[in-house]
């Protein structure tokens, strides 16, 4: 059974390459373009990981994390926050809200794999740095 | 008030006494030497007459003031009575002509008495003499007719002398009666204490109301007391010497004596005493004024004068007081210290000559304005000589009628202040660039992520057809970055420009909007542009851009990412151009409206806002003589209206 990952970002190109990378690594990937869509997707299905941008229209990443962590059904869902802002205060805010990992844009495939390995202890063999 | 009777002037008194004595001498001489049954001892008679004559000659040399003294008057009456009696005795006419003695006494007495009293005494004497003659049987003798005639004669003579006295004094009596009434009024109503004193004991004869008020004693308690009882016992020697001086000179002043009130408290007074004649008596009139109020007032005036002088000199900005013709009347210490000159070198020189080395008043002199309008005025003056900037205020000093007496010129050196202001604008600009940079970083990082990510994807992809699509994505991302960088360049170009140029406000608004969009990423805000073609204004592009980016950023933040309208509008009027930035954001609470332009006023958390944004906007707008107006309603939105004068347009 493949692990399911939800990618949330308002930048289409980012969703696109993330999807290619993750698919190659053997994950099942779903997409959302903003916070509202993300919450909708989370309600439809069970996921193993949420990769979420912070600055988005309608509902931003902070609110998505808050909702995920306050919902008993999704409380234990690990969250990787993506951001273009490179500020420590934002990173700590993310961890405070319950995010498991924090990645600053731009990032490489290797950084992504490292994050995934942290999230899933039983890392698949093909995940190599 | 004591019973006042009138006295003769010393001069008249002396005249009357001497005239009377001449009459007495002539009558006595006649009776002794020529009357029937004249004296036998001629030698003694001549001696007597000579003594009498000489005494009157001597008397005429005495000073006139002595004649009001009873010490002279009574011996004189006694002496004359003795001489005349002795003359009568010598001529053996004691029985018949003794009436002369009475007569003389009556006449003398009349000199200092009044007319009515004189007539009474004359009547009594005539009656007594009549009784005497009758008892001697002379009224029935052969010579009875001669004796009978003497009785009315005495009365007539009395009346005659009385008339003489009356006539001499009538004129004065009239004048004095009038002035006495005036005196009475003054005496009672005076605001100074007045005490009438009798010499030589300095007894209190009368006091006015004010005395009772100040001392606490009633009139009855003071009458007949010696005045010394009213003074402080320890000063009694000083008081005595003061009254001695008064006697000597007829009047005297003192301001170092104190009265003792009934309750024992002392009152410092200003005393003045002088002799006055009222009725048949002379008094010393002692006038005193309670000095406590005056001293208090003097002290207050002195203190407030000192305070004002201390403030005047203590102010570190230059102050001068100028006459309506610009002459310097006074300067404070800051003027002499700053200009390294002395008060004497500036005084009475014209302000523009002394301060600015000019021959005419400066064009934008606020003092000129104040001289014309009697209103405060101010202006800013650049002094090229020492490269300083002065802010000059002027205030009018008006008299009670509202006419201008002088003007105060207050010169404040604002060179440093202006330099700091420039620095503040500069640092706010830098802070703005910082915020922009972080916004830009965010904008760039997104396409950069795309480039890196897609490049890695492409590297692993063997299929050329698929790779083409990835490369297109990479290219798009790179182009986005390029656009952002191009936008930044125009901003940095504007920020660098120091000089003034003709600025198209519409263009700057557009650029500023782009910049803010870059920095805030609030794409959901719908911007409505209502631009009219407006005249350019002469300004520094960078500063105008700073104004607009600050205002638009505020508007974006106020809308907090909610989908809403931002209206940017420009309009042209006859004298000015108008720029409006209006949002439908959260608005500014009423209580903060008065503070929004204050430096460092912010409602944001530390680190999120400098509190300088609107302050800088205000400074820049006013620098170009523009006005700024903020209307705001909580939860409804804010409209900022800026107006710049359009007079500088000539491109």
Provide an overview of this structure.
The complex is a heterodimer of chains A (129) and B (651). With 129 residues, chain A is α/β, with parallel strands linked by helices. Helices cover 42% and strands 19% of the residues of chain A. Chain A has helices at 12-24, 35-44, 61-70, 88-97, 109-119, and strands spanning 4-8, 28-32, 49-53, 79-83, 101-104. Chain A has a 5-stranded parallel beta sheet, sandwiched between helices. The longest helix of chain A is centred in the N-terminal third of the chain and has 13 residues, at 12-24. The model of chain A has no long low-confidence stretch (mean pLDDT 86). Chain B is an alpha+beta fold and 651 residues long. Chain B contains 20 helices and 17 strands. In chain B, helix 3 packs antiparallel against helix 5 and helix 16 (415-460) runs antiparallel to helix 17. Chain B is rod-shaped. Residues 1-7 of chain B have low confidence and may be disordered. The chains are: A alpha/beta (129), B alpha+beta (651). At the A-B interface, helix 1 of A face helix 16 and helix 17 of B.
Oligomer: heterodimer
Q: Report the portion of residues of chain A in β strands.
A: 15-25%
Judged by helices, strands and strand pairing, the structural class of chain B is: alpha+beta
Summarize the biggest pleated sheet of chain A: 5 strands, parallel
Report the mean per-residue pLDDT of chain A as an integer. 86
For the CA atoms, what is the radius of gyration of chain A?
13 Å
Low-confidence stretches of chain A: none
> What's the arrangement of strands in the largest beta sheet of chain A?
2-1-3-4-5
The backbone outline of chain A, from C-alpha atoms, is globular
Measured as a percent range, the helix fraction of chain A is: 40-55%
Low-confidence stretches of chain B: 1-7
Number of DSSP E strands of chain A: 5
Per DSSP E runs of 2 or more residues, the count of β-strands of chain B stands at 17
Number of helices of chain A: 5
Distance between the termini of chain B: 96 Å
Terminal residue distance of chain A: 23 Å
